[in-house]
């Protein structure tokens, strides 16, 4: 795949000056919209997860007219609900040396120095308010006996700054945002459109002015206009088919915005989560994550000997390799996700993996049960143990869990500036859908933090600065009609192929290709193979996919086919991005770039930048580099040893 | 495993539905119930038939989107389990399995096994929240909460809004869903100021949506995938009575 290089990006709109004052400065310089004018302004928010739900609720409460969209039957189903472990905040309630600066530092370092300092510092600042907000809403976080909030430690951190609600923190935070959203719906400030899928952005006179959506029940193609559009549509990990994402998570909204001019940043940054339940068979539809918090008490090991087929209980301690504790004594089982994932892959590649196909390692609670008692372990992790048993049929109190890395979160996404605005004026992107704060690797318990920071606190301020120049008047009819025709044509084309393969069969094949060639470990050779194979498979898709039914009804085959089509285009860009970035960083491990110990080797000289891709209809995307500067955290080789 | 499925097919809300029989072969005991349906649907597509429409999303038992009545029981016979977490190892080889949508007047069928549960959202809109504007909350430690209260509130807050309680109730009551939210918020200090008005508004909305009354049958808790207890309904009734006495 060919590409050209375009101009560098230098202005990200982050204010200058001391890092701790930048967000205050931006807030003060942002223009305000007076309450009477807010009523005349309409904002569309697509997606109702932590980012979209909290943003729609807050914008509604501020007095804007908000139109909210989600593809599920109710906003409460968004996949943020499945996050288990927790949410970080620099409260220092434990007095263990935490601070805003330390959370900022850990996050920049954990992201392998590929995130922006200004954004991350703001995230750490705002984290404190998120906990206050959630508690006030009635989110039932875990408490100490004295009535104060409990915290726990999480992968990649040595302080206890993670607030949690048993193993269902995402659920409780999402329900908080959902309830705030429903409150605004009742108040009439937010209009909710469930079972609607966004299929295009309307760009008129250089501004995002609306969306084309499909009513997934009637099939009707609708146009919705606004003064600004916010995308909060989550990540694209389902490009791998098997991932921890919900089945419906897809890339369509951000991909089609990309086609309209929004840059796509760092598409190859995929986070692989180390503690998922291994794949059991060819029919499998998704993977289930076991919370990283399990590594607080569970010990990870494999047999010392290759191909050791003894039952785990029959393997004596001196024939076990607690490899994380051995290689990384300072962090042990709590090393960050990319490190733990790669270490698991390495021991499995050596032939020491356990379970079917040797693609698994043990996560063992024997010692925790002996030390704390079964009851205490059950109190902490009971629901996770139950979930594991349901899926595998094995009881983790008696035999160790088997885990293996899986695709979890995408750090890439649409490029945004400090105001969370994309390269299309008026198109804002928040949460996992943007690329911003995590760099090349996301630490545990920081996705919930970013989603809510963006939705409750950052966007509501920065979007006001944009909207202060509005309302923007009537939208050009030709622009609306063009977007609508484009959407209809794509649907008609999918329905007219009438081939012999299902959309899912293509998706599975694409996903396998991406996992094998652009997954945890990549080489120039594997990426070139993928770039050869993806266009062939896409061609076959458009010649041979079979979509049953019609466009004018609830048609789940059509929905899937449209998403798979977009995954093909995205997959190609991911592989190109990975091919060019000839360094290892975060979850992105290039076999050609490693140090003498086999650890990931970053190349700061050539790659300390964001890769922001501009779409080109000719098929030759344009690469814009945004140099990353580190004034506060010195770029060093990450070491957890 | 080889199975015979009897599945409710209905092309739209105003169409007559009917049971259709399908044979599925080579089902692995490790498959989830939804994966078994995926396999059948892949075949139906290739045969040019309309695949069976069903709601699902997270497939981790937490989003609450999936839901079907399996052999007469909401989410199937395995206790405290959503349909997506139900695995085929719990069925006998050669079994016949009957699959139907949630049936309740306030949950109209959209297509096949997909129903419209937006009535639940309207119950939440009536008052299932704490009125807090973003950006002005006091420090989280300023209001201590007894651990026992926080834990009990959490237990009620785990309701996933799947609607199995309604599907199982002979009266089509939404009491367990509504009571779970009322209980969650009424056990926390943050929920006190609106406690009684919330209970009244939510119960009244539940009635307005056409859900039936509660007669303490207990079928709801028997099928609840999150084990929400019947006591929550007592708590709701108590708050509702107090609200009306004022």
Write the layout of secondary structure elements.
The complex is a heterodimer of chains A (641) and B (246).
Chain A lengths: L3 E2 L16 H8 L5 H4 L3 E5 L3 H13 L2 E5 L17 E2 L11 H11 L6 H21 L24 E2 L5 H19 L2 E4 L2 E9 L2 E9 L5 E5 L2 E4 L20 H8 L4 E2 L4 E7 L22 E5 L16 E2 L1 H5 L9 H13 L11 E4 L1 H7 L1 H19 L8 E10 L2 E2 L12 E3 L17 H21 L9 H21 L5 H16 L2 E2 L1 H21 L11 H25 L8 E2 L13 H4 L1 E6 L7 E6 L14
Parallel strand pairs in A: 1-22, 2-3, 2-10, 3-6, 10-18, 19-20
Antiparallel strand pairs in A: 4-5, 7-8, 8-9, 11-17, 11-21, 12-16, 13-14, 13-15, 15-16, 21-22
Helix pairs in contact in A: 3-6, 3-12, 4-5, 5-12, 10-11, 14-15, 14-16, 15-16
Chain B lengths: L2 E7 L8 E7 L8 H14 L22 E2 L2 E2 L21 E5 L8 E3 L2 E2 L2 H8 L21 H11 L6 H5 L6 H12 L8 H14 L10 H5 L7 H15 L1
Parallel strand pairs in B: 1-5
Antiparallel strand pairs in B: 1-2, 3-4, 3-5, 6-7
Verbal overview:
The complex is a heterodimer of chains A (641) and B (246). Chain A has 641 residues and is α/β, with parallel strands linked by helices. Chain A contains 17 helices and 22 strands. In chain A, the strands form six sheets. A five-stranded mixed beta sheet of chain A has the order 1-22-21-11-17. The model of chain A has no long low-confidence stretch (mean pLDDT 96). With 246 residues, chain B is α+β, with helices and mostly antiparallel strands. The radius of gyration of chain B is 20 Å and the shape is elongated. The termini of chain B are far apart. At the A-B interface, helix 3, helix 5, helix 6, helix 11 and helix 12 of A face helix 1, helix 2 and helix 3 of B.
